[in-house]
Structures are given as C-alpha cells and as structure tokens.
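User: Could you write out the 3D structure of this protein bound to magnesium ion? I've included everything you need below.
Assistant: Certainly. Input first, then the structure.
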Amino acid sequence: MKFPKKTVADLDAGDRPVLVRVDFNVPLEGDGPGERRVADDTRIVAARPTLDYLREQDARLILVSHLGRPADRDPAWSMTPVSRRLAELTGWNVSQAPAVVGPAVEKLAAGLDGADVLVLENSRFESGETENDPELAAALARLADVYVNDAFGAAHRAHATTEGVAHLLPAGAGFLLEREVTVLSSLMADPAHPFVVVLGGAKVSDKIGVVERFLEIADAILIGGAMCFSFLRALGHETGDSLVDEAGIDQARRLLDRADGADCLLELPEDLVVADRFDADAPHEVVDGIDVPAGRMGLDIGPKTAQRYAGQVLESATAFWNGPMGAFELEPFAAGTRAIAEAFAASPGTTVVGGGDSAAAIARFGLTDSVTHVSTGGGAALELLEREKLPGVEALDDRE
Ligand code: ADP
Ligand code: MG
C-alpha cells in the first residue's frame, strides 16, 4: 500500500518552527508534582526517527501531546517529567512551556533556535482539545509554520491537536504514523492467506466491529482471554466466577450466527485453566472442557487450546493478535499468552501485534523484535482495521 498523505519528508521544514503532535502519553510513577517520573519511555523513543529527521533539517521543534486524563489543570499531569526524560534521552536543550497556547508560549516559540526543543503543556489542560475547538486549533497554528502528526495512538481522535490544527498549516505524517498506517492497512487490503487472527483480552463490546471485519477477510479467528466467556455463555456454557462482559453476550451470539455463513472459522477454547480467585497464589488446575465449575474462574486457555492455536499461527501466512489469552500478569496464568507470543515470533509469515496489553505481553517475553510489527496504538489500531480511516490521518495534506 502506498501511503496517501504527505509525510514529514515532503514538507519544507528547514529553519522553520514545526509543531509536532507526538504520543507522549506515557505511564508515570511517583506521587506529588515534583516526584513524578516516566515509568516507561517506549513512546518517547518511538518518536525519535521523526524528531531526529526534523532536527537534521534545522527545524525548530515544538512538541505537543496529551498525558492521562487530567481534571482541569492538575499539576500532577504536567508534561514536566516527560520533557525531563526527553532531555536525558537525547541531550537536547529541551524547555517546558508553562501552558499549551497563549502569548507567553508564542514568545517562547518565536525565540527558539535550531538547537532547542519546546514541549507544550498537556494538551488536555485545554478543554478545547477534546472538543476540537477551532479557537484552540488557531492558537496552536500561530506557534508554527508546519504541522507534523506522529501520534498514531491518538490518531483515532478528532481533537484540536490531532485534527483541527492540521487544516490550518501545511500538514504531513511523521515516520511512525506512516509506518503504522501502512502496515495495518495492507493487513486488511491484501493479506497473504492463510490469515489467522488471535483475539483475547478483557472486553468483547470494544472489539465487536473489528471481529465483524475479520470474519469477512480472515480464514480463522481464534478466541481466548476473558473475551471467550461471552462466547461460551452465548453457547449456554457455565462460566462460574469468570470475568464476563455481559453486554458482549448478545454480540457474541450474533457473531456466532454470522460466522455460520462465513468462510472464516470462529474458534473457541477446548480446555481452560481455572482458579479460586484472581491471585498468583490461588489454587488452580486445568479443566478439560469449557464449563467453569461454580465458584471458580477461568484465567487462561488450557494447554491443548494453546497448542492448537499456536499451530495455526505457525502455519499462517499472515497473523494478527490483539488481547492476551489470559491473566498473563500472574505467572501461573501466563502460559497461553506465552505460547501465542512464541508462535508469533517463530511464524515465517507476516506477524502483527496490536493493543497495549498485548504489546506489553510480547515485550515481557522478550519477543518484540521477532515479529513483523508491534503497533504502538491500541484503540487506534483497532479502529483503523475496522474503518480503514482515522481522523488524524484524513486531516493531513494529500500527496500530490
Ligand atoms: P489489549 O490492551 O491488548 O487490547 P485488553 O485491554 O482487552 O488487551 O485486555 C488485557 C487484560 O485482559 C489483561 O489485563 C489481562 O489480565 C486480562 N485478561 C485476559 N484474560 C483474562 C481472564 N480470563 N480473566 C481475567 N482477566 C483476563
Ligand atoms: Mg488494554
């Protein structure tokens, strides 16, 4: 697939102020405004290719991101720890703006030279961000001559920093956004077959749309994680105290009906690991079958299921995975997820992983570099797979 939008390489950024929308929505640790530190800088590192390229062009960088879901301008959600980590990682002269927009920020932006980087405050400190307020977009546009969006994880949101401002400046995609959209779009447009999809995690209702799309395109959908309990309930099985997305049961029933007439197999576990409670020390055992005894909960797919699913992944030409197969954070319930991660790593075909917890799982097993692509965006990846378009991408300038 050819990326249809301008990228940072098509824009004239040299010696000009460039506003870059990055996804620096990183996990923080520590309490109190002065104590907060970045707990995982993966997303900061992922923006490096675009930022390095722009600095080689002598662009003057102005970075903007959201961080968490702050109430008002809660200083606990200031970007300060993020700009500090960026400076540590790069050695650049990074300064932290006191606000997102406004006269003081305009002055700082105008005073930048090529060596400096200015990080704006948390975009969600402005209520106009999520409302895609045209006045906030205009205020952002006043800071720069060029706009680059490299925030794939936020590209499914039509917010002022991801969508509104893109209409007001020459606008293109960063390298991370370009790669994410290209890989994920070609997965749906022209996958090599057999195409096997592995789905798990906690919620069915969030993922229903993308399952419908996969029923049209894939050859098999292998269901695990807590997600499988909505399907098992729809088929009349007992799920005990397992985590069940109740709203998902009707949706699961409809998907099972639809799968009946499709060329795609919708597959469910044949055995499960059940435990007394959600705890690494809880007594647990494998049950051969898919009925969870009363008072117990299913926390992983069983070994037969894991082996069957892994075998299908190994024989696939294309494989996509979203959602862990069990409560992998607890070692006794990590085997199913580990088996899928190892199969993805060993499969000779194209292998793509999307979803925050799925990406964390494959990283934990040390296999991130052994798959074709691990998406940095959970919601954005699923929405792109389902709808083929993201507002933050659509708003960029078309390639001539
Ligand atoms: P992703 O972020 O990859 O899209 P989700 O957020 O949908 O995945 O789900 C991940 C969570 O699902 C993990 O925290 C995991 O512990 C949980 N989970 C998976 N299977 C089970 C299960 N059988 N019971 C309880 N929690 C589960
Ligand atoms: Mg998640």
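Residues 236 and 291 are 9 Å apart (CA to CA).
User: Perfect, thank you.
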